[in-house]
Amino acid sequence: MNYSEFKKLVNLSKEEISGQILERNRNSIKVKKEKKVIDNLIRIIDATLAICSKKSFQAMSIRDLSAESGLSRGALYSYFTNKEELLVLIQTQGREIAYQVLTDQIAKGSDPLEKLRLAIKSHIYLSEAMRNWFYFTYIEARNLPKDEQKRAIESELQTEKIFIDIINEGVKEQVFRDDNVVLAAAVIKAMLQDWYLKRWKYRSRKVSVDEYADFVIHVAESILLIK
Amino acid sequence: MNYSEFKKLVNLSKEEISGQILERNRNSIKVKKEKKVIDNLIRIIDATLAICSKKSFQAMSIRDLSAESGLSRGALYSYFTNKEELLVLIQTQGREIAYQVLTDQIAKGSDPLEKLRLAIKSHIYLSEAMRNWFYFTYIEARNLPKDEQKRAIESELQTEKIFIDIINEGVKEQVFRDDNVVLAAAVIKAMLQDWYLKRWKYRSRKVSVDEYADFVIHVAESILLIK
DNA sequence: AAAAAAAGGACGGATGTCCGTTTTTTTCTT
DNA sequence: AAGAAAAAAACGGACATCCGTCCTTTTTTT
């Protein structure tokens, strides 16, 4: 699997994503017609991610968002009850998508090594396809309210657990070394994150997403595979 | 070298750091007595980093800073001309310290492998000793004014270049593999950053700084060393 | 007593949010 | 099918609050 195959494989329509958001937030969304809600959620989220790729969520005013999305301030407040809720809404959905896609893809692997490769590739490819979303989810997590911060942390650990489980499975089957599994998973995760946190760097160096994914797999195998 | 040896070796007194800041910002600091300036700069920076480990710099008001530092709002403005300058001041100094310590330590190594180990250890140990500072420098870089953002990017590339140079030296001496040097340096850097970006994770798992540094060295050697 | 430093009131501007009004869409009636 | 009535959605002015910064006054130090 390479990136262009991944994109065809994983169908991430904006309508579908906003549909999920609507389901999760029916009670705080005051507009009734589904089509209208989904259209406007797409505009709102696109606008938020666009603005927040340049400045922080806190620095983005509702007036900024109104200008970028083309909805009035009053209209915006029909889709969330306050600014913080908008942050929570996008973050929650971002984590959900990442988890869904990751577990879906891994399920296709039949042995630990294949699963590991799938996990690495699909995480990097997904963060490439949704770079603004991933960046936002990472960088704005600290501005979440306390209880939502806890959820973000749990999600991070959950993702890491996916890698830990794959590695442990490989240890049991004697394809991977039984050597600091938890740290191995942690540094793999760190490498995955670097792709969307430092995209400017890789882009300016003309490192393609496929090249990066292959390299991370190479590193992971160097640590894990029994010689 | 382990962490406690590093701390004795590298003498990072707050007075010294604030002294350097004073030198760099003599024209914008209105207070004349050096001792007073240094004392208060320490209080201001300590307070800023403490507050910003909990919320963003933008979310920190001058009133917050006043309360935490014990200086009045008016007094604060004797040490910087505006809030943004305070951000720039801390960031600049943070990058400076990191670069100084890193190059100082590396110079002690006599061969590429030793230099690589020294570079990894000193970066991780330094980020451990100054975790709030490193976290702040990383996370608030995006809120810098445009030209200072450029400086931050240059600094990041410069640090990475240190690793690239070490690896290239090793390639020439045929101790390291000649295989994607730039990406190797990039992922090493990503692992270094994870230590201060995700300290809560490593702490809760009781991973010590020495253990983490050794593991990163182990990974780096797995990628680089000729078998 | 003079100089230096700190204090904190005041001000203009920006922000999140509310809510009465206007516009658009849908439904109903003829 | 057309137009009126009702419902839904969007609008944007207004308000209270908070913030950065300035500047005069007070306190501390020399």
Largest contact between protein chains? Answer: A-B, 34 and 34 residues
The tally of helices of chain A reads 12
What is the H level of CATH, i.e. the homologous superfamily of the largest domain in chain A? Answer: Tetracycline Repressor, domain 2
The CATH class of the largest domain in chain A is identified as: Mainly Alpha
Helix content range of chain A: over 70%
Shape of chain A: elongated
Q: In the CATH scheme, what's the topology name of the largest domain in chain A?
A: Tetracycline Repressor, domain 2
What assembly state would you assign to the polypeptide chains in this entry?
A: homodimer
Determine Rg of chain A (CA atoms, Å).
19 Å
Largest sheet of chain A: none
Walk me through the structure:
2 copies of one chain form a homodimer. Chain A has 227 residues and is mainly α. Chain A has 2 domains: 71 residues, no CATH class; 137 residues, Tetracycline Repressor, domain 2. In chain A, 73% of the residues lie in helices and 0% in strands. In chain A, helix 2 crosses helix 3, helix 7 packs across helix 8 and helix 7 packs antiparallel against helix 12. The structure holds a DNA duplex (30 and 30 nucleotides).
